[in-house]
Amino acid sequence: MKSQHIKHIAELNVAVLLVSTSGILGRFISMPPPVTIWLRCLFASIILGAYIWYKKINLKFEHKKDWLTIFVSGLLFGAHWITYFYALQLSNVAIGMLSLFSYPVITALLEPLFFKTKLNKKHVFLGFVVLIGIYFLSPSFNLGNNHTKGVLFGLISAVFYAIRNILMKKKVAHYHGSMLMFYQMIIITLVLWPALFIFEANPTNNDWQALIVLALVTTAIGHTLFVMSFKNFSISTASIMSSIQPVYGILFGVLLLNEIPLGKTLIGGFLILTTVVIESINSNKK
Q: Which positions carry the signal peptide feature in this UniProt record (predicted)?
């Protein structure tokens, strides 16, 4: 049983590691966010569709009303990505990720409303510790004009992401994670199709390379694994444990962009890692 729990934690961390590549990839892509997300979802739906066909995964829903939940969650997921990429473009990777990772606190506050459970004060406390740690992760938190807009877009993105994850929690117990992600990618692709006629986009070779990695590694694999982890953890637990993502983002910055973190950045990473360890132990006890 203990080894199984360690396996679940390892799978969740692999998912978070892959998802954390979105920050750097989002900064590399120069196209407008709606067009970027449309291409991302188009490529991801093709990849997921091929995987589902190969594995012969059932695409049928048990209840017709499940369609509405998947449709709404797809819209929320698309809105989350678009606002997040605007946050990245308006500010930088640090501030974009920092503002987005208010979502564990938002999730802890919203989850009892959807599942009719008591508000877990420990989750709220850990969520605020994560926020403090995230604040330290930023080398400079200067809220200039564009940075302010970036933070606001990041916070809006966090609300969309929290509600979408809560909706997915109700469905992941009945359906395969790849199937749920596939339908969400199709929904976002169809809804954002008009963006091609609204925004001008001239993708470069770097854009195409980043988009392929974004679709395959970050979306098709990373986000699917993250959704599947909802079977083993509560949404609040998965959200708090995924708060290690900014730490991974900084490591990618060191390796790929030669951005060496400051001392207070290390303090923030330590606080976040502490909450992840505490929640891992608590989830094992449960």
A: none
